[in-house]
Amino acid sequence: MSAALVEVQDLAKTFDVSAPWLNRVVERKPRQFVHAVDGVSFRIERGKTLALVGESGCGKSTVARLLVGLYGPTRGTVRFDGQDTRTTLNSDAARTLHRRMQMIFQDPYASLNPRWKVLDIVGEPLREHGMASGSDELKAKVADLLLSVGLAAADVEKFPHQFSGGQRQRISIARALATQPEFLVCDEPTSALDVSVQAQVLNIMKDLQRERGLTYLFISHNLAVVRHVADEVGVMYLGRLVEVSPKTELFARPRHPYTRMLLDAIPDIHMSGRARTPVQGEVPNPLKPPSGCAFHPRCPHANARCSTERPALKTFAGIQVACHAVEEGRIG
Amino acid sequence: MTAPLLEVKNLRVEFPTRRGNLLAIDDISFEIAPGEILGVVGESGAGKSLTGAAIIGLLEPPGRIAAGQVLLEGKRIDNLPYEQMRAIRGRQIGAIFQDPLTSLNPLYTVGRQLIETIRTHLPVNESDARARAIKLLQETGIPAAEARIDMYPHQFSGGMRQRVVIALALAAEPKLIVADEPTTALDVSIQAQIISLLKRLCKEHGAAVMLVTHDMGVIAETCDRVAVMYAGRIVEVGPVAAVIHQPQHPYTIGLMGSIPVMDEDRERLLQIDGSMPRLNSIPAGCAFNPRCPQAFDRCRVERPNLLPAGATHAACWLHDTATRKAA
Question: Residues B67-84: pLDDT tens digits?
């Protein structure tokens, strides 16, 4: 097994969502916590793409933010190229680490400063990390970056509002690439875009990965997009990974009942008459997650054990699944 | 052939601005038969939601219908006074919008909103209306409807709210439902539930649907026919299977190729370079010509209308007989 660039061990993040102090005292409300991410472990090999999928509120974006250090973990470790990121981020080496991993956000309208020119937006990381000396070199480097994402060198003088959504997302990608990172965390990079523009952005991301040997963590709720970009897929439900497997395996033979349900729920564009089981129920309130396996109230294969004992992520023939029914061989 | 339920003839919607009129919908015509589900698909800014808004008479000023007619069962409804249109809206045309939270009043219970709608349009008393409201909520799959009817919208989850909105749209048994992106704000598992619900209920109630969405998958699952819109015009219209499997317009071909699909592996997605033109700079001739891989001289000067093409109709000069002979 080749060395993993990113290794996440038992990562957890808890948010305090209690009522304000006065209400707690006067109305005797208890403190409340949301376990947004609850013990997630995975590894991403260099040059590969791991995709995390799940419905809203499953904690996939929180994982992305934990990885780049926008949130501090409540528990667990993130190792990047062998170093623990938590200790590194508190040391002098933090800048080097920031340079090596970058993030692309979902909304290209919110993630670019509307009062900055593209030159400043894409040039900021270069200036910040001392990677360009003098304004001429900066401008040349920014122009190169814009060219690599399919924009024109003359665009450096424009403001974000002069671009369409897809072009803005390319600016975000150019900014993320500015420091020549090895690892990119992409949080729903195409969900705000139209399909034809989404195709442009996905193609660029794949081309860049091939040219520069980038490693991606790709967060999405769209399984068809994930199928297109990922090497390995992790399916999340209520803060936990329920299945991690290679892409082809996951789509050909989903193991976990939740993965099967997600695959069944996708509208079938080619109307191939694929048998679909109707989906039941909704994602439970993360404030009061169900006991045992969080999926058991919606699961057609749940039994008494599922409602009391939480299944751990276990490996079966190279595929990691957290499900009692799969472990006991009740479902194949 | 039965008479169409809804007929849209040469509809134009424009927005007067200081720098001249912006033509958001440019001369579109289509019809919906009773009980039929017509999908309207396109990317943001194609004018699909505006078409829906124009039909139900809810265009936001300064937008206005500049030309054309909207006929419901043969009667013009686009020029009715506000109060008459209000009576039609809800009674004969129901509407479902993208965000269930904005279609429900947060200050009233779900039951009150349903009962109000029912009593506005149907001659029933309070208790009958309430019984009907409960029945509607049950039909839309809301568990414990008797108890939940007295709850407020914030006490419902997103999927449940959208069920309430569907119940509201169906409350007065309208003949046509205009659904504008009804599942876009929902997760996939909920989306599947809502779509099958919408499909089943419309069949049971015999209502025709105009389903506006950007999601081809939703169209494929739900619709009988589909109209593809680009820059304010319908570029292709035809039976769903034909449009999806043998699209004829270069834009539809590109659109279908750019959608990542589950059942096949492609190294690269087909991409349409560029993006949809802004309303103030729609190119002459066919609006798609700057992005079209097959554009030729005629496309740059003359605007194509819908022509028979394969099993569909496409607004493209490639399907003109004169062009074909020359080629």
Answer: 999 999 989 998 889 889
pLDDT, residue A276, reads 61
Using CA coordinates, name the residue in chain A closest to B196. A278
The reported pLDDT for the residue numbered B260 is 81
- At B248 the three-state DSSP class reads coil
Q: Answer whether A43's CB lies under 8 Å from A7's CB.
A: yes
- Given a cut of 80, whether residue B264 has pLDDT beyond it is no
Helix axes A165-177, A195-212, angle to 10 degrees: 20
Q: Cβ of B270 and A199 within 8 Å?
A: yes
| Mode of pairing for the β-strands spanning A75-80 and A49-53 | unpaired
A231 touches chain B (CB under 8 A): no
B302 pLDDT exceeds 50?
Answer: yes
Q: How far apart are CA A38 and CA A18, in angstroms?
A: 18
φ/ψ bin of B73: left (φ > 0), alpha (ψ from -120 to 50), beta (otherwise): left
Question: Per the CB < 8 Å rule, is A196 touching B187?
Answer: no
* Chain A residue numbers touching B258 (CB-CB < 8 A): 195-196, 198-199
Going by C-alpha positions, the residue among A244, A313, A301 that lies closest to residue A54 is A244
Q: Are B174 and B90 in contact (CB under 8 A)?
A: yes
Count the neighbouring beta carbons within 10 Å of the beta carbon of residue A121: 23
Number of other CB atoms surrounding residue B67 within 10 Å:
11
In whole angstroms, give the CA distance from residue B132 to residue B136: 6
From B44, B245, B270, residue closest to A194, measured CB to CB: B44
Does a structural domain hold residue B277? yes
Spatial neighbors of A305 by CB under 8 A, at least 6 apart, are A292, A324
CATH class of this structure's domain A4-327 = alpha beta
Question: Could you tell me the mean pLDDT of each successive run of 10 residues in chain A, 332 residues long?
Answer: 82 89 88 90 93 88 91 91 86 87 88 93 91 89 90 90 87 92 92 84 91 93 88 93 92 90 78 60 81 89 90 89 90 74
Report the residue from B244, B245, B271 with minimal CB separation from A203.
Answer: B271
Residue A274 confidence (pLDDT): 54
Mean pLDDT of B22-42: 92
Which two three-digit tokens encode residue B147? 């108890």
The amino acid sitting at B325 is K
Burial tier of B320 (Cβ tally within 10 Å: 0-12, 13-18, 19+): middle
Range B130-147 average pLDDT: 89
Give me the residues of A, 153-182, that contact B with CB < 8 A.
164-167
Number of A–B residue contacts, CB under 8 Å: 120
* Measured CA distances, A297 to A33, A77, A226, A305 (Å): 22, 31, 27, 12
Task: Provide the whole-model pTM.
Answer: 0.83
Which DSSP letter does residue B266 get?
-
Domain span at residue B288 reads 248-327
- The pLDDT value recorded for residue B132 is 92
Region at A239 (left for phi over 0; alpha for psi -120 to 50; beta for the rest):
left
Ordered by start, the domain boundaries in chain A are: 4-327
Provide the chain A residues 199-228 that lie in CB contact (below 8 A) with chain B.
199-200, 202-203, 206, 221-225, 227-228
How many domains would you assign to chain B? Answer: 1
Average per-residue pLDDT for chain B: 88
